[in-house]
Every structure is written in structure tokens, then in C-alpha cells.
Amino acid sequence: MQDLIRVMKALADPNRVKIVKMLEKKKKMCVCEIRAVLDLAQPTVSKHLKVLEDAGLIVGSKEKLWVNYRLNPAPPSPYGATMLKELGNWLNHDPQLAEVYKILPSIDRKNLCQL
To answer: What CATH number did the domain enclosing 60 receive?
Structure first.
């Protein structure tokens, strides 16, 4: 039961659902890109990513100086796999997500992720 609760809690926050839907569209994103789209503080985005990662919904991989996040192609629980599959079909016409999808193409890592 713990796996189900962890997945459901991870998806109970609108910003985390937005992150999952963004990763569906863009395939991989770093913290600074997600932060720019959602207009949240970097620590807040990192916390959301940690919750999604702990639920097995996303995975991070280090690439040079950045950690890129993407949907987990093989979630460890059947609940996570089912929710990721179903979320692919849900909310595609949601007005909040439409705004996010409008912003996504203009996100440029080179301008956002400077050291």
C-alpha cells in the first residue's frame, strides 16, 4: 500500500503534475528550465523533483554541470507506471497546462542555466 500512497501524494500537487506533463512534452529538463516555466524558486522546484523521484515517477541523470530529469521509463511500482500512462491521456486540454505548453518552446537552457 505504501507505493500507492507515495505515488498518489506525489501527484496530489498541481505543480508536480505540471512537471510530469512538461516532461511528457519536452522529454528532459533541468531545474532551471522547470523553474523558469513554473515561476517558482529553485529550492521549491528541487523539492518537487525530489518527491517525484522518490515516488519513482521521474529519474535524474547528471550531464556536465546539470541534472536532467525525465519520466521514468520503468517505474518501480505498478501504480507509478499506470499513473504515468494515464496522465499521458489526461489534462491535455487543461487551461493551466495550455499556458505551460505555450511557454515550453521558448525555454532556452543556454540563457537560463548560467553559472
So the answer is: 1.10.10.10
- Full-model pTM: 0.93
Identify whether 115 is part of a domain. no
- What's the pLDDT band for 66 if we cut at 50, 70, 90? confident
Residue 98 has a pLDDT of 92
Per-residue burial over 62-88, b if 16 or more Cβ lie within 10 Å, else e, is eeeebebbebbeebebebbbebbeebe
- Domain that residue 22 falls in: 2-107
